[in-house]
Amino acid sequence: MASKDCQTIRKEISQTVRIRLPVAVLLLASLPTWAAGTRKRHPNPSAPSNPDYMVALATANRFLHAWQTDDLETGTLLLSDRVRHSQDPEKFEQFFAGSSGRAFEISRGQGNPGRYHFAVVLVSTTGTRMRRRSCEIILINTGKNDWVVDKLP
Q1: Which domain holds residue 67?
Q2: 131 in the same domain as 59
Q3: Which of 106, 109, 112, 121 has its CA 20 to 30 A from that of 46?
């Protein structure tokens, strides 16, 4: 009778293990999900739905591309009258003249319809040295969806 009690106990343990083992595996597998859920999450900011923002960003990109490719003519056309008249022409030409190894980074813009500013990083190379310069570019709407650069980077 003692052996029957051992067999009964083994069956009970076996049944318990069959039920609890999959539950334990499931809980362990979902542990990383639970741990990640306790962290504070910051939603990704959505792009502005304002069409002016898109045109301002495209204009900033065109201007910086003109700088990247030493295209003084295109860069000049994208300037506001205020900047054109207040800026020394030689200084403006120097801004466009330079090394061929150039790149830029534009961050998400801020502002309101009619005026946006974008944080920009200008990257240039001289020989084997790379230089990064953080600055800002401001664009304004001059009317009829015509955007121009109102502050040089």
Answers
A1: 51-151
A2: yes
A3: 121
